[in-house]
Amino acid sequence: MKKVTIKDVAKHAGVSIGTVSKVLNDKGYVSSGIYSRVTEAISELNYQVNANARSLKASKTNKVGVIVQDISNPYMMSIAKTIEDKIRPSHYHMLVMSHNEDPHTERELLQLILEQRVDGLVLVPTSGNADMIQKVLDHKIPVILVDRKVEGITTDYIVDDNYYGSYESIAYLHSLGHRRIGVIYGTTNSSIGKERYEGAVDALKHFACSNDEALLVSGKFKAEDAYKATIELLFLPDPPTAIYCCNNTMTVGMLKAIQEQAWRFPEDISIISYGDVNQWELIQPPLTLMTQPLKRIGVEAAIILKNRLTMEEPFPPKQIVIKPELLVRASCARRPEGE
Amino acid sequence: MKKVTIKDVAKHAGVSIGTVSKVLNDKGYVSSGIYSRVTEAISELNYQVNANARSLKASKTNKVGVIVQDISNPYMMSIAKTIEDKIRPSHYHMLVMSHNEDPHTERELLQLILEQRVDGLVLVPTSGNADMIQKVLDHKIPVILVDRKVEGITTDYIVDDNYYGSYESIAYLHSLGHRRIGVIYGTTNSSIGKERYEGAVDALKHFACSNDEALLVSGKFKAEDAYKATIELLFLPDPPTAIYCCNNTMTVGMLKAIQEQAWRFPEDISIISYGDVNQWELIQPPLTLMTQPLKRIGVEAAIILKNRLTMEEPFPPKQIVIKPELLVRASCARRPEGE
DNA sequence: TAATGGCTGTGAAACGTTTTACTATGTTTT
DNA sequence: AAAACATAGTAAAACGTTTCACAGCCATTA
Questions:
Q1: What was the pLDDT predicted at B1?
Q2: Residue B325: which residues within 8 A CB-CB, separation 6 or more?
Q3: Is residue A248 within 8 Å of residue A276, measured between CB atoms?
Q4: What is the mean pLDDT of residues B204-225?
Q5: Residue B330, min C-alpha distance to chain A (Å)
Q6: Strand C-proximal protein residues, Cβ less than 7 Å
Q7: Is this model's pTM higher than 0.90 or not?
């Protein structure tokens, strides 16, 4: 089957190219006779408009870029899904890609985004490409940061209040009487990791909990490292009575270690995690959680994006910080005071 | 910042457009002096080539479409990730979208794919758009079906042997001595649902298990319906000694019901599921599973796609059927024979 | 009757590239 | 010194659209 262009349709219908275009876009005056002649020709020739040519002419692509750490991460993709649902009715579609937490990869992807002339970008940034992000903004492409912000960049973002979430998690454990609290943190080179770490540390200090350095261990945001970190905590001469784990991925590792060592929670140890609630459906007893409102993040991001895409007038950057909420379930036990 | 085109670069560097193009594509003869003048102009003006114009000229977009049920489904997206990793080195990128199991939506997406002139398509099809898929193929766009095939369409596909997987699951339960086996199946209007259903039913018949109709219940491929289905099974006057659940999503519902009713497995009831192994990391005791080789599906799909994209000569459709493997763990118990 | 105005359709320019055929230089080779 | 060749750069066509200015026509209106 040969490639068929608007020209072929025009010839086949015996009209000019301009007329066919009018029919395609329902613009201007076309008599009903001609109109049906053209639509007939279109379906007979099985013509499909070439979106590339169209975008070129219009300098508008109806594409938005979505760059996340990892497209197989269901939390990020649930946000992407929300966005998809919001923008598809206006005939936008998404380019989605993973930077795998590698700034160099992210840089290449941003380059691609620029070349592709997307109409907007939703980005979960690594740190270290502020210049490139600024470049995208300079090209008048709206950028919406999700989950993390970037130092020195003024644009829309939507993040949750990590410091607060961590602080309150510790506060809760303290309120139950815990004084020796283990913390499995991620890394401190990302804004999220740092904020959660600091929130926890500040709370520990404020509530005068044990300042035993051995209680602070890094799980590097990975399940395996968190597993090892947990083992360390459990085998301490004086193990913690509670553990706060800074994110869900690491919590998987932590739970594995606890299961394996046949500790029970909350009887032997109290645990609390920080993240999305959906991951833990089948875990018994149900985990007490500082809940990250993923649904809400997706919805807000989608709204902002939609507005950026459709509003004529630019509006000031929308920067949203969502406070996570403590979901008290059954994984933390009260501890006799004064111990 | 104004839009800057190849023309501006040419002017700024004092050369012709053609020369700039040569530099951009490293093609033809350019003296080193001119070359650096041009690259300098490019970075001074912050020029980015317009991929749309380029695609238009080349009639090649470096885009591939990826259409799945739901982009927030981690199993599908782990396949997508494998594909991404494989094709990005050759500077391809992906349009990804969800049809939500709705044929009408799928049709619209296929239309979009056609207009976008993608260079290839990876599709988890619904049933009911064979004509449209054929249209895509007619436009010389390679289509790779994943997880499901489509009646009447000759193209690459890669699926697992659902009938076999179901049959063998039942066979395994039978070999442990089970005779009253409950089956939670999905729906029978999709090829997967049908094949799994038939595999199970045929095995039940072949091994002369109980043919009590009440033991066959539909969970409609949803967790909630599977929950209800499980409750029905458990409250039967003569409940099954084992349950085979046809997919992971439904198994979530099944496990919930079992937990809630405080049945223990494998002591009170044996259970076996069909799906990807990664979902069940933390479930104790570890589930016995007919494992769907998602990794392998992704890898094979990526290889086929890559070949279709790069090979000059067309090759015959590659149709792969993968046999799932039984992973025996701890959720099934031996049953005294003859009961 | 002449002027106005609403329809209907057309031709050509423009969007930003790549590519092809061509010209203009040296530099060797005979 | 002429012929041959390698190198360097250019102008223009083409890719498939949309849009804009215009022209033809018919029906009103003055």
A1: 62
A2: B290, B291, B293
A3: yes
A4: 96
A5: 15
A6: A 15-19, 22, 28-31, 33-35, 53, 56-57, 59; B 3, 5-7, 17-18, 21-22, 24-25, 27-28, 47-50, 53-54, 56-58
A7: yes
